[in-house]
Amino acid sequence: MRRTGLAASLLAATAAVLIAQLALGGALAPAARIAPSGLAYSSASARTVQRQPPAGSCHMIGSGLYARPDPRCTPGAVNPEVTQSTIATTICRPGWTATVRPAESITEPEKLASLRSYGVKGASRFEYDHFVPLELGGAVNDPRNLWPEPDYSAPSGFYLNPKDHLEYVLKRRVCAGSMTLAQAQRTIALDWPSAYRSFG
Asked: Are 82 and 91 in contact (CB under 8 A)?
């Protein structure tokens, strides 16, 4: 990702986070914490079905496999337990994401409500996706970090969509020390399709 304009992009991403917080929860808590990536830390429970934005209030940017979520609804949010100093015991430890991933009994009703938020139908055509992935310290069960991502219409065998490929590449870089966690989180949240063309 080019460094030119990164500060402006980070300010825009932070503004989108604040707007989303207002839309989803009314007033911001004075103690709202922002991660080095510019994204909000989440305190949403993985054991509670989370309220989604109002039906029809969110609109995807683009379409198909390279669509992006509405930054007003899904700007991304991150897990406060995953920081640059904890990556060796969290995201870079094999099997760690399975220890934090919410149960389907939580995510299935959220997915259906999120489909209504985005005004789309056909649950099987969408993956309920962590926008900033768990593998990069994304918030586990926060509506600011989950959305109905368009998926392949006819899967055949094992496959990964383009965003999954990018997430894998970025995680390898973070765990190898060639990219910071904050850089990887920003790369996804600001414009993952452009990043895919650079890193994919």
From this structure: yes
Residue positions counted in the chain: 200
pTM: 0.83
Please report where in the chains the tokens 């969408």 appear, as a residue. 126
Indicate the helix (H) or strand (E) that contains 130.
Answer: strand 126-130
Question: Coil, strand, or helix at residue 185?
Answer: helix
Residue 82 tokens, joined = 């995953």
Interior/surface letters 50-66, b for 16+ CB within 10 angstroms, e for the rest: bebbeeeebebeeeeeb
Work out the burial of residue 186: count CB atoms within 10 Å of its CB; fewer than 13 is exposed, 13-18 middle, 19 or more buried: buried
Sign of the four-CA dihedral 68, 72, 78, 84: positive
* DSSP 8-class letter at 31: T
d(Cα 32, Cα 48) in Å, to the nearest integer? 20
Instruction: Give the C-alpha distances (Å, rounded to integers) separating 93 from 88, 98, 135, 139.
Output: 6, 11, 10, 17
Predicted local distance difference test score (pLDDT) of residue 200:
61
Helix or strand (DSSP H, E) at 111: helix 104-117
Domain positions in the chain are 6-199
Strand stretches in 84-191, DSSP E: 126-130, 146-150
pLDDT tens for each residue of 126-135: 999 999 999 9
